[in-house]
Amino acid sequence: VGGSRTPPLARVIVEGDGGASAVEITAEGARVEGLAAPARVSRVAPAEYRVAIGERTFTVFAVADRDRWWVFVDGRVHRLVVRDERQPVRPAGGYHEAVVAPMPATVVRILVAPGARVARGDTLILLDAMKMELPLRSPRAGVVRTIACREGELVQPDVLLIDIEPQE
Amino acid sequence: VFRRLLIANRGEIALRIVRACREMGIQSVAIYSDADAAAPHVLAADRAERVGPPPASESYLAVGAIIDAARRSGAEAVHPGYGFLAENAAFAAACAGAGLVFVGPPAGVIERMGSKIEARRLMQSAGVPVVPGETPDDQSDTGIVAAARRIGLPALIKASAGGGGKGMRIAREARELAESVAAARREALAAFADGTLYVERLIEQARHIEVQIVADRHGQCVHLFERDCSVQRRHQKVIEESPSPVVSPSLRGELGAAAVAAARAAGYENAGTIEFLMAREQHGDAFYFLEMNTRLQVEHPVTEAVTGVDLVRAQLRIAAGERLPWSQEALALRGHAIEARVYAEDPDDGFLPQSGPLILYREPTGPGIRVDSGVREGTDMPVHYDPLMAKVIAHAEDRTSCLARLEAALARFAVLGVRTNVAFLIRVLAHPGFQSGIFDTGFLDGHRDELTAPGDAASIAAAVATAGWLARGGIRPDEPHGQPRVPDPWDTLTGWRS
Mind listing the pLDDT tens digit for each residue in B429-472? Predict the structure, then answer.
């Protein structure tokens, strides 16, 4: 190898909850945009890695889950998507005014009817998840267009429950 | 003791009881709902009985089905764990009626202590101070609202049958009362099948201090010192420790004596906990009886750590009619223990409970570290039950070393596939307010923003670099669990030939 710096294998964008970073991947690790020192990654055990950045070292656990990466470091869980630099950002999907269940839950009560005028923050539905009552509130002011669930129904996450037509 | 014991619970506490059974040569019988057919507690027990479909009301709360399961399995005794039917007098009575030993106090004692009004009356007669409050005779919504006005705001409205923060609401202003009463009622009905509500003055800036007691049926009763459970979120305990950083030796003596007096007044038998609110008042620290928990507590391991005893073993021996294994003089506090509850919930998103598969699950280990958990890698975090995943308990010579030990253990508790509150717990432990030992039950709510802040840049970069390297770096990622793939030449590659 003779000490020569290895060429980058790829340039990618890594997206997480906190935003996106440009990353240059090498055989030894990665250089993360905005960070002076490169990260050197080595495998310790299945799914366990040691990452050295400057004088700090981290124990990192990482697994793939379909198109995303689950990564654990210092008690914190990151869900990351890796895409090539030139690949377009995925369009934001879904209904912008949709009220969805954040997790599997039972619909306890529906507090609005189709056509009802609601203000931002009004409680629309009461869910029961893991024995706790969970109110779903309107993301904005508008009119209830569709109610796509019934009381007593077990609903899945990210599925439309109520559709709000935004109005000023 | 017993030859065979049925464990009427699930999750980490069922596994904890299975462990005690193994050590004592008792055969363990697990129960399970359809959602738990392959759950760790079922696989750990010597045998298992199905009790119903996933909803707890039709399985882990189904008294008839559980008694039938105990009969079928030939169990002689039933350990209820905590939650579910642990404080249900009808269940204890049904066990006795079926000729099964209930590991806990007699049904009459559960009933008395479960009624907040009875318990208070009893405590007052035993000379134990109580907080102003009442269970109104008029249980209509307007009756509860009127009671709250009589007692004064801020008021706590809670399920009379409750515990663990379920069916509990705070009303600070009169206009919040109606909604709080309705919500408390719904949760009380859903969680305990009993909508009776209790109204109490909210003592603010109070600490939650509880005393572990154990009594046998031969008239002996001891206390095993206090636990401080002041770090709570919505009345759900998050971090518990023993000893309390603010209880002096003389106050410890007073608390212990009050707890033993309370247990004796109740005619108590087996392990129980007396909860007190402690408030700093003008004349010094005052404590008030809050309630008695007639069962094993979630946080019992901190007491086990500092006293060196096994509470579940003691429970089983006492239930079998044996004498208390320890005298009060023989019990001593040694070092400091802290427990952190790891929940499958997302602190960055309003602590929403999470469900899903545990793709990777690695518990920390090491000197002075105990992990009691109810899940395994590859299993699902079910949606039907409490999102408590594990408890991490650290024990060390003093509070400072204990904090450091617990923090280091949590930083190595890798769970992937669902989000957990681990980073939040680490922030709580590192917070100067928690480290000082001077905090109250409002601590978590008061510091919420500081406790949910994102991680530092280098740690985020380490995560980003690892994901990028695994995705494009020419090394194949490991399978999440199970056997590794066939040896991969890329794994042995040390560098590029230039």
Answer: 999 999 999 999 999 989 988 888 777 889 999 999 999 999 98
Q: Whole-angstrom Cα distance, residue A130 to residue B187? A: 12
Return the sign of the alpha-carbon dihedral for residues B486, B487, B489, B495: positive
Residues 6+ apart with CB under 8 A from B419: A77, B344, B345, B346, B348, B354
Pick from B414, B471, B480: which is nearest to A72 by CB?
B414
User: Which chain A residues contact residue B466 at CB under 8 A?
Assistant: 30, 39, 41, 49, 51, 60, 62, 69, 71, 73
* Per-residue confidence (pLDDT) for residue B160, from 0 to 100: 83
Instruction: Please give the backbone phi and psi of residue B389, each rounded to the nearest 5 degrees, phi first.
Output: -100, -45
Tell me whether residues A103 and B457 touch, CB distance under 8 A.
no
Q: Which residue of A has its CA nearest to B458?
A: A53
Are B133 and B201 in contact, with CB atoms under 8 Å apart?
yes
Q: Which residues 6+ apart lie within 8 Å of B483 measured at CB?
A: none
Token reading at B335: 């070092």
Q: CA-nearest residue of chain A to B410? A: A75
Task: Determine contact, residues B331/B303, Cβ cutoff 8 Å.
Answer: no
Rounded CA separation B10/B382 (Å) = 12
Contacts with A25 from chain B: Cβ below 8 Å: 468-469, 471-473
Of B142, B106, B131, the C-alpha closest to B216 is B106
Strand locations in chain A, DSSP E?
A: 10-16, 19-25, 29-32, 39-45, 48-53, 56-65, 68-73, 76-84, 98-100, 105-110, 117-118, 123-129, 132-137, 142-147, 154-155, 160-166
pLDDT digits (tens), chain A, 168 positions: 334 456 788 899 999 877 889 999 988 899 998 888 999 999 999 999 999 999 999 999 999 988 889 999 999 999 999 998 765 444 333 335 678 887 788 898 999 988 889 998 889 999 888 777 888 888 888 888 888 888 888 887 777 788 888 876
Helix (H) or strand (E) holding B107: helix B107-114
Q: Which residues in A lie closer than 8 A to residue B187 (C-beta atoms)?
A: 132-133
Q: Name the closest residue on chain A to residue B480, using Cα atoms.
A: A63
Task: Provide the whole-model pTM.
Answer: 0.79
B210-230 pLDDT per residue, tens: 999 999 999 999 999 999 999
How long, in residues, is chain B? 498
